[in-house]
Predict the structure.
Amino acid sequence: MLSNTSPRSLDAHDHHVLVVVDPRQPAASAPLLVTHAQLFRATDPVTCTVAVLGELSPSIRDDLLEFLEILRDGRPIPARLSIIAASTVQDLEWAVAFAPQGDPMEDSRGQAYAIAALHSLRATLNAAATPPAPAVSVPAAPQLCGTYVGQNRMLVRTCWNLPLLLPADDLSITPALVLHGTFELSLQRFILRTLRAGDRAMDIGANVGTHTILMAQAVGPTGHVVAYEAMPDLAEFVRDNVTMNCLAPQVTVVQKAAWSGEATLQFTGTTKYRGNGSIRPKSDEYLARYGADEFRQIEVQAESPAVHDARGPFALVKVDVEGAEPEVLLGLEAMIRGGRIAVLVIEYLHWVLGADAESRLLALLAAYRDKYGATFAQLDDHGQEHALDLVAIATHRHFPDLVIRFPAAAESIVDAVA
């Protein structure tokens, strides 16, 4: 058992990470070991202890060293990483700790929290460094493989060790998830750094639910996630992925478009790049980028996401709706004004928005700044924020993940929880 007593044998100035490994099923602990390897350098004051369940024989130690070398993908094993028998772990205090329980859902939940804690530790070290340690863009897991399960579906394991069903013929997110187990990694890291157990979140433009299930894992059974997806076939993937991960009680899937109010909309569905469906007609620039795509027109029902206000306040609302962001933000205005949203993350791509939508979006951002004291930031590869002003946003015009924080909303959430 672990206690709150600091270990005598470890450097008190280091941050200590414990990863328990079962030699019979080492893959259960692999995501933590890979994340540690990618986040921390040999010069960081972070000690990683790998505790082996059962007997630590020379052969098991050699096998584990070989396993670590594979996971570290060419990175040397640092002096601050040690291998011990789990039976010797006692009277120790750890900044981050993970031990497999043998239950896939419990292990997935424990991995998500521990990986989020590793990112928080990295953020703490970055904040204390002068100058800040340089960020390195790396995947969060070794290359993974997908399995075709029939009916145009692929089954993959994400880098957060969560199973996910994907359309096999999709050319947008399926290739990345099959090869690397992740998509929009910086945003996923931000989600894990932001959400806590009991929080409320929205995933507006959920696609197949890649971010939805990660949000649901983070908020746990006492929290809730509302996921909007307008395309019927993709909404079905969201429902199946939520159910497959045993998260249905804490997720509401809405098969509608999020909008400024109730409406019936003509929607352009994309056949090959599934995540690019939109109420906006496809521009010449889109056709130049995705010339192989095919389109179909469908009619979808729309509503304001504020109909879920009673579930809030919301710690995080993510909006990725392929150019309809201004309409969605208008639908959220009452919640923002009432301090019911702490953080918005929106996609701001000028070539997707078009001139009219971009000018409306900039006007909304200016109003948020002037009326609500909102601040803006972009995410780096580690999911950490770097401040932006409105001039930089209007000049650069390309932010896959633009973070908008509302100070009043944050205070409202704290008051509500208290």
